[in-house]
Every structure is written in C-alpha cells, then in structure tokens.
Amino acid sequence: MKSSGRVDSSISGSSLAATRKCMSQFGTAPASSLLTIGVIAAYVLLEWVSFIHEYKGVPITPWNPGLGLVFGFTVLFGARYAAVLFAGAVIAEIAVLRTNLWWPIILGLAAIIAGGYGLVAQVVRGHLRLDAGLNRLRDVVLLLVSGAVGAALVAVFICLLLLADHELDLADVLVAAGPLLIGDIIGIAVITPLTLRLALHPQPLLDHFSLRMLMEFLLFVAVVIATLWVIVAVGPNGSKLFYVMFLPVVVAAVRYGLDGACIGLAVTQLALVGLLHLYGYEANAFAEFQLLMLILSATGLTVGVVVTERRHADEMVRAVERELKAKELEAAQAARFNLVSGTAAALAHEINQPLTAARALARSVQQLLRGPVADAARVGANIENLITQIDHAGGVVRRMRDFLRRGRPHSSTIVLSELLSDALALAGPEVASKGVGIALDSTTDDSLVIHGDAVQLQQVTLNLVRNAAEAITDARTPNGRIRVVARRLEAPARIEISVVDNGPGITAEVAARLFDPLTTSKTDGLGLGLSISASIVEAHGGRIWLQTGRAGMTEFRFSLPLETG
Prior knowledge:
Elements: H1 2-25, H2 29-50, E1 53-55, E2 58-60, H3 65-77, H4 80-95, H5 103-127, H6 137-164, H7 170-200, H8 203-207, H9 211-233, H10 246-278, H11 283-370, H12 376-405, E3 411-415, H13 416-433, E4 437-440, E5 449-453, H14 454-475, E6 481-489, E7 494-501, H15 508-512, H16 529-539, E8 543-548, E9 554-561
Parallel strand pairs: 4-6
Antiparallel strand pairs: 1-2, 3-5, 6-7, 7-9, 8-9
C-alpha cells in the first residue's frame, strides 16, 4: 500500500538521522578513541563474565555478549569496528582464556572472528540496507539471519584452523562447534538489538520513564528470576518447562514494543546464565537451554518489532491527519479570500453608498448649525440618520473582517436566521451586480439554533450562492433568481438549508464527482469550493448533497444537527 511506503521511508529516514547524530557525537578523534577503548574493555569484561571453560582452544560459552556488543557497533559505524573485535578477541584469548595456543593460531582465530563478522556486518549494512534502528520486521529478521550466517562461517573456519593445526580432530569439532555456534548467535540475538536501540533511540524510554515503569520492571525481573529458578531447580528435565518464559517476554514486547523485548530478553538471559552456573550445569545442558533461549529471542523480537512498527504507522497516520487538517484549514481560508476577491468591487460600492450618505448628512448638519437659527429637530434627525448609515457601513466591514480573519474553527451557539442574513448580506452586492435576484425565505424560524463555527457555515452558504449566481450569469439566464430556504426536520432533529436557482442545471457527469477536489465546470475555477464545503458540513456532523440538477430548478441542500436542551 502507498501509506506503508510512506511510513517505511519515514522510519528509515529517522533512523538515518539518528545514526548520523550518533556518529557525529563520536566523530572527533578523542571521542572516537575513548569509545574504541571502552568497547574493547567492555568486550573483554563480557568475555570474562560469560566464559565457562575452554575446549582445546575453543571457548565454550553459554552465550557471547561481547560479540553482540561489538557486532552492533560494526553494523552502526562500519568496518573499523572489525579491528576492535580483532583486538578484543586477542586480549580475551590471552587474559581471559589464558590459552596455550601458538601466537599465529591466536591471531588466526581473532582474524577469523573479526573478518567473518566484519564482512557480514558490511554486507547487511551496505548492500542489504539494514535499518540500524530496527523499526521494521524486515530489519530484525535480517539481523538475526546475518548473525546466524556469521556465526556459522566463524565456527566452520575456526574448526578448520584448529583441525589444520591438529588441535582438534573430527570428533572434537562436533563437540565444540555446536556450543560455539549457539553462543555466538544468542549473543547477537540478545545484545545487538539492545545495543542498536540504546545507541539510536535512547530517548523514548527516558522520556516516558516513571515510577510505574520502574515498578513494572522490578516486577518483571522478580517474575523472570522466580520462574527460571523453578525451571532450573527441576534439573535437566526443567528445559521442558522453559516455554513458560514466553509469557513475560511477550507481555513486555506488547507493552513496550521492541525496546521492551530487548530489555526483557537481556534480563531473562542474564538470569538464566546466572542460575545455570549456580546449579553447576554442564556445557551440553547450557546448549539445550540456550537453544530454547534463541527461540524465545526470535519470538520476543518479532512481537516487539511488529508492535513498534504498528505504533510508528499509527503515529504517521496521525501526523498525516494533522497535516491534512492544517492544509484543509489553509485551503478553506484561501477559498474565503478567493470568494471575497470576487465581491470586492461590489462591496466597495455597498460601503461607498452609506459613506456618501453619511458625508452628505454631516455637511447638512454643519450648514444647519451655521445658520442664524439652528433647527434642532432637523439636526437631530440628520445625526440619527448619519449614525445609521455609519453603522450599516461598519456592519459590512465587520462581517467581512470576521469572515476573513479566522483560520481555525471557533464553535459557538448560532441563531440560524442571523447566520443566513449575514451570509446573504455578504453575497448580496456581488449577486446584485450580476443582475441576479436573491431572497431568504421569509418563513425561516428565528428560534432555530445550531452549534458550530459561524464563519465556516457562512462560507458553505456563500459558496453555494456564488456558484448559483455564476452559473446563471455564464448561461445568460434571463430573470435569474436564487432562493435560500431553511426548514426544521425531526427524527433526528436537524435543519436543512436549501439553495435553489433557476440556472442551466448540472450534467450527470459533473454531478457524479461534484464534491471531489479539483472538480469544476468553470474555466477559472479551482474546484475546491464544494470539496471544502463538504468537509466543513461533515465536521459539523451533517452532510451536503445535490438534491436536483435539472435546468431551471437546481437545488443544493445541506443538513446540520439542531442545538437541543
């Protein structure tokens, strides 16, 4: 769908901006050097925490969190972090594993680890266009698959290297390759998404952090530890109960999206490894639990990213709705200006009449007051008439000012007869200048009250009246007439306003798409008037339609709910 494409591009754009911001923060040489040293230190520390024992030069670990951390930085910043992985692997091999392997083998192992994961990261980053923000399901799946491919490549080449050096035989490969493969994959599955999210999107959790969130986190930790304690305490058969762990992780993913899934999986993994180590489980048992943990990680991340993607889509829909609403308001205001521009000359004439009369009356009063005997009665009558003329001109200006100045809806209680009278007073001069008669049905009830924006509803009436006048003028219909009628209807209580004219009518082709934007039969029209009118009426809980389009009896109607109570 087109909308999903817009959402996808926006998500990718936001992640790209976040990546650039993150890179700029560490782009200077001192900051980059400090970050590099920090990542190497973190890698070695995590290797020490997760290390259980070495099997003929191959580290047998339940998981590899250091690898997940550095792989995340490699995906984020590029191939230079493969060198960081190489340095970390050499230091860990010497300081943590305390290996007795020959130096060329140590360097070969580190080169395989760094080269394998660096190559995979570069491929998904540069060629497969992985969005490091992991805002889409595609990106999470791509990350997991690339981690598995990298782990398989590294495991195969490490085993081949040690076979070539006669450190392992074929039976040893089967023993070492499985735990090595699972440990690397689970490290990437749990730590890499968390690293990327913390690097690119640290604000959402910080912005929404609260005491309630802290209590939920502590409750989650307690539930996870208690549940895993029961599972691990059962013994080797406890792995059959491990699927119970899906419930808290999925709940965290549904509640907080991908961020909740990442944190939930990290807590679960730490608690699982700690308890397995506490109960003295062997490497094979570790591997069995870790395989289940890998399935849990894939499930949790999938649920989390689907929730996050849905929330991003909802946010984009709301943003587009707000933008469309703003554009609609701008278009409505532009339409009002366009409407007024067509009546400017006639309105100038309308205002000039009372001003000319007022000037003449003022001159008359001036002359009367200069006479030998002032005629107080005539002076008073002239002044009263002068005030009336000024009020009339002021009323025209006031109605025009109110009609133009507002761009946002302003709801109030409106007397319908006053609304229609003001609208026809605005439209009257232009309609009269075209030689068209206009009348408001005298039976309109003064007690009819509606609730809404008076200016917008005036605009609907003016659009319909002006369209009718232009149609009559363009067709050169003799004795052109426009009649505005308001009536009350029940069940439900509402009013209907009709604008009827004796113009040339509307063809069936135009009538079928009359209220669509850019639909017009006028050579200089924008085709927005009726579309905007429909939006305004619908926003007030009503509807607008063409009652009949036949020549000599064209009628538009719109209905609005009545103010009750």
